[in-house]
Design a protein that fits this description.
The structure is a homodimer.
Chain A: E1 10-19, H1 24-39, E2 44-51, E3 56-63, H2 66-74, H3 76-89, E4 90-107, E5 112-115
Antiparallel strand pairs in A: 1-3, 1-4, 2-3, 4-5
């Protein structure tokens, strides 16, 4: 998916991770639940996610404020998922909280390129 | 790859894209060349990239300043690649220029989690 057009200012959480080879089903189930749950949070704008066959993946969630990111991090069900991540599923990960300063899109469908 | 420990402030360029199904070899060759070329630019810190089997991918490059990002965008060989991207290789893409405000890492190897 490509998701654009969010009103500025907005924020991105870049989560880069390397999965270990364990508990594929448990991980997938939790990952799906976290997507559902994130979408219910105040300030959630959208999400992009991809994982390669080598186990490396990037998930980016977009939010309307630093406060909404903090609230999501502190969500109790999300806290449980984070603990499973550290103890069961990830070799390593990095989390980066970013402010989006500029964005622009391209699509073959519309043949436009709009700097915003 | 996971790449961390960059001195702040630093900046991220999030490039989310959907490939079409054409010119796999030409695209791969140019993509490899762009990684080589980016690494030679002043202010380049690192890069993470992953593409899924469905054609959706995310590449994030990290830079030490907005100026180094502008210089990379204007690089003449990179400009040619960008034009091929729009006319040949991508269904759509989004580019976001971001300032990284916080980051933290986790690794099973070191069993540490350092907020920075």
């Amino acid at each position: 998916m490509n998701i654009t057009g969010f009103e500025k200012p907005y924020y991105a959480v870049i989560f880069s991770s390397v999965r270990n080879n364990t508990d594929h089903d448990g991980y997938e189930k939790m990952a799906e639940r976290m997507v559902e749950l994130a979408q219910l949070q105040a300030g959630f704008l959208g999400m992009e996610s991809v994982r390669g066959s080598d186990g490396f993946g990037i998930t980016i969630s977009y939010w309307n404020s630093p406060e909404s990111i903090k609230a999501w991090k502190a969500n109790s069900e999300h806290q449980i998922a984070q603990e499973f991540g550290r103890t069961q599923w990830y070799e390593r990960f990095s989390t980066r909280i970013c402010k989006v300063e500029r964005d622009y899109d391209f699509s073959v469908d519309s043949i436009h390129r709009a700097g915003r």
